[in-house]
């Protein structure tokens, strides 16, 4: 995280001899790449070059070859091991003769970083001294098991500040920066200090030792006579030798030391002096995880809590804790709406009447005072009572309207001992909106009670209940609102597992889920475009984003999707979506939110994390829906966040999660979009952002999106814009161009 931003010329001198070997040479390259992280590489600031030496020195790239850190690191990775003898002295003489190739001729400080095992086959003392006399700062970095006394000769004074060990890459990068921070680089960040600490230098020496003796025969002065004797048996062995030393490092205070994150949030350091807070669900009203005031809808809200023996005292206390945390997080200190709380077993009590409290603090005290009763579970009777009597109290505030939507949230974890079959119809007739919350085994009863699986929230374990707070908030505020994203523009791709691990019957469940999900979107060129990919060991595009322009056409195409039946590779499916679906050539629209929904059995996920990260890097959300048992850590690496992972126990339960999945997709559709992600420019064109627009910088191609090859000579040119066109594209004009491009492609 530390960077030297001074004007500086840095030359790496990498030992590529046989004594290093190919494996250690790769480590040297990796270490050189890590050291580049300590430099702000730019033609006007830090320039970096590299020489590889063995029998002879070889210039890999001069200092003026690359302009960015990423380019330098990529070039270092491509460096090939050469092999040969270790002629360090000859390499130093090359630098004395040639200087720093591509450098600024000593007008800026020069730093030479030698990465070697120090086992030179020639003398290095004289050329090393001459290099240092030219005011070149020399760092000697040991690799493998170096000969430290030889590296001492190479390093600048004092040697303890200029000797590093590549095996401890992070410490070595810190040590390099610590030495350069004064006076070469910019001043150390506020609060940081350079300090010394004890360390070890290790080397491997070959020594001779007496292993024992053996009987041998020796000649005698007497003619024709020999005599027996004991002869020493010598063997060679490698001995690890440790040299105590002093190392230097820069220590900075942790920006999280002050514990800035509230309400159980986790502080994550970012750089030397910044941080961000990972907030618990329901918090995140500001950067420090304040209570999130996100219940931005006006409703009359009544919670009905199961207090029967079936839910147990533990379950009742859990519901109370959930209710308190939800109201604190979603509503805040003042109550902008009427909230009431009731509890039931054989009887129904309303200890907190609707609108009784004006602030959250007094409401919390009343919730704390509620006691467990432990009778029978008469859910049907309780709901009927609430429908008749729960919303009779008049509003506390004069400006609160009497005709607000009325929402009942049922919290239960026990099967009802009376009939609930007619409750849903009766509650609906009273113009109440009912949401049911319970554990997994309550799923069927909650669907019956509410009359709609989309109005149920099912949790898998006690902690998962608290993770459902945002989902409850969305359902409360969706009263009277149609589902789906409606007129919000969206490019949506489904990647469906059609492997043998899913099986034909379960594949039909997945296909039906995709079909019913599409009913929630307005499908045309201007609003939602949908693509479908199925995959086994290979991925297949069933239809692209621009193939169908109506809901009926998409539904008809989904009905024809065949089952594949071979092994699964989710990684190849995600790569296919990135390269062959979410592209301008295949109908993707710049400036429109993009989402991939991966429907999988969990098989073949091993190689999916990297492609998923590539999609996110290109501004495409990856939403993972997994049915069955799969390792959660691996699924989280693919999804990138628990918010974009839905884990379902069986295919039959998939329908109950459709509302949640569509809500989260639509949240993404409403989020800001980077016009250059994914890159709308074809043929390696570079997308350059402007205020509310972008342009494509083309090389060898032309047109608004680099779609036409530049014609040489007198050949007729297409009527496109010239190369490196400065014309900028705003979101309003993007879709028209996309359609024209597809039309010309078909012709």
Low-confidence segments: 394-401, 714-733
Which class do the helix and strand fractions yield? alpha/beta
> Count the helices. How many?
20
Largest beta sheet: strand ordering: 3-2-1-4-5-6
CATH level 1 class label of the largest domain: Alpha Beta
**Main sheet summary:** 6 strands, mixed
CATH topology of the largest domain, anyone?
Rossmann fold
Oligomer: single chain
Domain VWFA: 9-180, 300-476, 491-665
Pfam family, one: EGF
GO molecular function, one term: calcium ion binding
Subunit structure: Forms monomers and multimers.
Short summary:
By secondary structure, the chain is α/β, with parallel strands linked by helices. It has 20 helices and 26 strands. The radius of gyration is 35 Å and the shape is elongated.
Structural descriptors:
elongated, 20 helices, 747 residues, six-stranded mixed beta sheet, Rossmann fold, single chain, 4 domains, alpha/beta
């Amino acid at each position: 995280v530390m960077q030297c931003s001074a004007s500086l010329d840095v030359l790496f001198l990498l030992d590529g001899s046989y004594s290093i070997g190919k494996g250690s040479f790769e480590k040297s390259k990796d270490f050189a790449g890590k050291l580049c992280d300590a430099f702000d590489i730019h033609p006007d600031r830090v320039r970096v070059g590299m020489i590889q030496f063995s029998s002879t020195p070889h210039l890999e790239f001069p200092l003026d070859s690359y302009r960015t850190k990423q380019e330098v690191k990529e070039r270092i990775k491509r460096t090939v091991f050469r092999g040969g003898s270790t002629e360090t002295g000859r390499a130093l003489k090359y630098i004395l003769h040639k200087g720093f190739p591509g450098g600024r001729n000593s007008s800026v400080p020069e730093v030479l970083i030698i990465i070697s095992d120090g086992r030179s086959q020639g003398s290095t003392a004289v050329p090393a001294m001459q290099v240092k006399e030219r005011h070149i700062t020399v760092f000697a970095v040991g690799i493998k098991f170096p000969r430290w006394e030889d590296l001492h000769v190479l390093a600048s004074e004092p040697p303890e500040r200029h000797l590093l060990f590549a095996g401890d890459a992070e410490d070595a990068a810190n040590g390099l920066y610590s030495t350069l921070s004064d006076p070469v680089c910019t001043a150390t960040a506020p609060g940081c200090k350079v300090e010394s600490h004890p360390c070890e230098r290790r080397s491997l020496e070959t020594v001779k030792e007496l292993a024992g003796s053996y009987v041998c025969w020796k000649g005698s002065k007497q003619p024709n006579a020999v005599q027996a004797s004991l002869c020493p048996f010598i063997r060679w062995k490698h001995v690890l030798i440790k040299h105590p030393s002093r190392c230097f490092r820069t220590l900075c205070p942790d920006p999280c030391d002050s514990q800035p994150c509230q309400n159980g949030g986790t502080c994550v350091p970012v750089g030397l002096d910044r941080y961000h807070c990972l907030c618990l669900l329901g918090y995140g009203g500001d950067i420090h995880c304040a209570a999130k005031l996100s219940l931005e809808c006006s409703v009359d809200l009544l919670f009905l809590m199961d207090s029967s023996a079936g839910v147990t005292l533990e379950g009742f206390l859990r519901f109370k804790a959930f209710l308190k945390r939800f109201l604190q997080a979603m509503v805040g200190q003042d109550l902008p709406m009427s909230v009431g709380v009731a509890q039931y077993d054989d009887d129904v009590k309303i200890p907190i009447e609707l609108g009784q409290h004006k602030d959250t603090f007094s409401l919390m005290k009343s919730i704390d005072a509620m006691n467990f009763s432990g009778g029978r579970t008469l859910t049907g009777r309780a709901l009927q009572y609430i429908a008749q009597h729960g919303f009779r109290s008049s509003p506390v505030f004069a400006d609160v309207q009497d005709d607000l939507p009325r929402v009942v949230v049922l919290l239960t974890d026990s099967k009802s001992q009376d009939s609930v079959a007619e409750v849903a119809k009766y509650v609906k007739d009273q113009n109440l909106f009912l949401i049911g919350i319970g554990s997994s085994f309550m799923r069927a009863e909650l669907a019956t009670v509410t009359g709609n699986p989309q109005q149920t929230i099912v949790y898998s374990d006690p902690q998962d209940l608290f993770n459902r707070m945002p989902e409850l908030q969305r359902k409360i505020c969706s009263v009277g609102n149609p589902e789906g994203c409606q007129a919000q523009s969206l490019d949506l791709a489904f990647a469906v597992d059609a492997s043998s691990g899913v099986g034909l019957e379960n594949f039909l469940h997945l296909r039906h889920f995709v079909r019913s999900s599409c009913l929630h979107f307005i499908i045309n060129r201007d609003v939602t475009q949908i693509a479908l990919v199925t995959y086994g060991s290979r991925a297949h595009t069933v239809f692209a984003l621009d193939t169908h322009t109506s809901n009926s056409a998409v539904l008809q195409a989904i009905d024809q999707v065949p089952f594949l039946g071979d092994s699964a590779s989710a990684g190849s499916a995600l790569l296919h979506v990135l390269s062959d679906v979410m592209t301008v050539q295949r109908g993707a629209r710049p400036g429109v939110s993009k989402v991939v929904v991966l429907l999988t059995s969990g098989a073949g996920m091993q190689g999916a994390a990297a492609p998923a990260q590539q999609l996110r890097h290109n501004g495409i959300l990856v939403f993972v829906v997994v049915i069955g048992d799969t390792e959660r850590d691996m699924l989280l690496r693919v999804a990138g966040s628990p918010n974009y992972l839905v884990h379902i126990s069986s295919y039959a339960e998939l329908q109950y999660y459709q509302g949640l999945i569509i809500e989260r997709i639509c949240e993404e559709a409403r989020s800001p979009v980077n016009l250059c992600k994914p890159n709308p420019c074809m043929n390696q064109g570079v997308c350059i952002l402007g205020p509310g627009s972008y342009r494509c910088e083309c090389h060898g191609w032309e047109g608004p999106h680099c779609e036409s090859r530049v014609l040489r000579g007198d050949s007729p040119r297409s009527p496109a814009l010239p190369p490196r066109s400065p014309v900028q594209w705003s979101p309003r004009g993007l879709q028209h161009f996309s359609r024209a491009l597809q039309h010309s492609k078909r012709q």
